[in-house]
UniProtKB/TrEMBL annotation:
Transmembrane segments: none
Tree of life domain: Bacteria
Alphabetized Gene3D superfamilies for the sequence: 1.10.1530.10, Hypothetical oxidoreductase yiak, domain 2
Molecular function, one GO term: oxidoreductase activity
The UniProt record lists the keyword Nucleus: no
Similarity comment text for this entry: Belongs to the LDH2/MDH2 oxidoreductase family.
Name this protein carries in UniProt: Oxidoreductase
A Pfam family annotated for this UniProt entry: Ldh_2
InterPro entries documented for this protein: Mal/L-sulf/L-lact_DH-like_ah, Mal/L-sulf/L-lact_DH-like_NADP, Mal/L-sulfo/L-lacto_DH-like_sf, Malate/L-lactate_DH-like
Presence of keyword Oxidoreductase: yes
Keywords: Oxidoreductase, Plasmid
């Protein structure tokens, strides 16, 4: 196992932003991408953190990614819109789409924005969390290239297709769900390759469909639920594909160019995203929402865990705990990323 180096968030933020700017990203694109990557690194989602800057910089230089995109918004109704990301980095487009959905929800109670002609956007929770900042509930989905087998399938079909949802909790950090619909994200496989670590059992298969824990041999992932209950993850992946690609006009998973396809670094991939924002004040009302959610979370966290001396965690609790720990210890950086950022 390779040694893990720790760096402060401030240093990583500066080096990441500069690397993107040097690769040709606009100031707005570099800032949005940096904030999304640092979000993931701060909360412990290292597979989608600063390690991705190496790939993004390479794609900017190669021409697959447009470093200076001109986002185009098509308002289709008071509460709906479609955003053309102009083949830019997905982080810039997703933050913009979520802000638009928040503005529409403030007027109508709900806002829904689809995004097409985009690219990989990192951790979806970065964008869902913008809604609680405005006192609203945010949902974000994204499709991706095929690297997950359908339930009992023989080859990859869906992407890891994440779902994120964030809700405001009065006086507390937001409730946050941020998950792939696969067993693990494929970027975690790439991270484990860099670190020289074995994969957990039952999450990946080799090119022949045999289960493997060797990150170097992993060719595809299993859907969430694994060999016995993977139909659940596969169904959720399909839901994300319909929202993020079919509804928006983006490329469906099995037709999308692979993120790491070395034969073509110039053709845009047309990734799709979908965000929904809900204003609680237009449903049960702000006071009723705050009261019920706090009551729900208090009851949940009061349940004793099977781990001695601990209680059950709500979605987001682990992430916020990790964020506080990393403020003290720094953020772990894998050897490849450390070399690229010259740390």
């Amino acid at each position: 196992m390779s040694e893990i180096f720790h760096a402060s968030a401030d240093i990583l933020e500066t080096r990441t932003r500069n690397a993107l700017l040097e690769a040709g990203a606009s100031t707005e694109t570099a800032e949005a991408t940096t904030q999304a990557l640092l979000y993931a690194s701060r909360i412990g989602v290292d597979s989608h953190g600063v390690r991705l800057v190496t790939h993004y910089a390479a794609m900017l230089r190669a021409g697959r990614l447009n470093g200076t995109p001109a986002l185009k918004v098509h308002r289709t109704a008071p509460a709906t819109a479609l955003l053309d990301a102009d083949d830019g980095l997905g982080h810039y487009a997703c933050y913009h789409a979520m802000q638009l959905a928040i503005e529409m929800a403030a007027q109508t109670g709900i806002g829904a924005v689809g995004v097409m002609r985009s690219s990989h956007c990192g951790a979806a929770g970065a964008y869902a969390l913008k809604a609680p900042e405005a006192g609203m509930v945010g949902i974000m989905t994204s499709n991706s290239d095929a690297n997950v087998t359908p339930f009992r399938g023989t080859h990859a079909f869906h992407g890891t297709n994440p779902i994120a949802m964030a809700a405001p909790v009065e006086g507390q950090m937001p409730w946050l769900l941020d998950m792939a619909t696969s067993s693990i994200p494929f970027n975690r496989v790439r991270l484990y390759r860099s670190l020289g670590l074995p994969l957990p059992a039952g999450v990946a298969a080799d090119a022949e469909g045999n289960m493997t824990q060797d990150a170097m041999q992993a060719s595809m992932l299993l859907p969430l639920g694994g060999e016995s209950y993977g139909f659940k993850g596969a169904g959720l992946a399909g839901m994300v594909s319909i929202l993020s690609a079919v509804l928006t006009g983006a490329m469906i998973d099995p037709r999308m160019i692979q993120m790491t396809d070395t034969s073509d670094f110039t053709t845009p991939r047309n990734v799709g995203h979908f965000c929904i924002v809900l204003d609680p004040a237009r449903f049960v009302g702000r006071e009723g929402f705050d009261r019920a959610l706090k009551d729900y979370l208090a009851m949940l966290r009061a349940i004793l865990s099977t781990t001695a001396g601990e209680s059950v965690m709500a979605p987001g609790d682990r992430e916020w705990k990790t964020m506080e720990e990393r403020k003290r210890t720094g953020i772990p950086v894998d050897p490849d990323t450390r070399g690229f950022l010259k740390l």
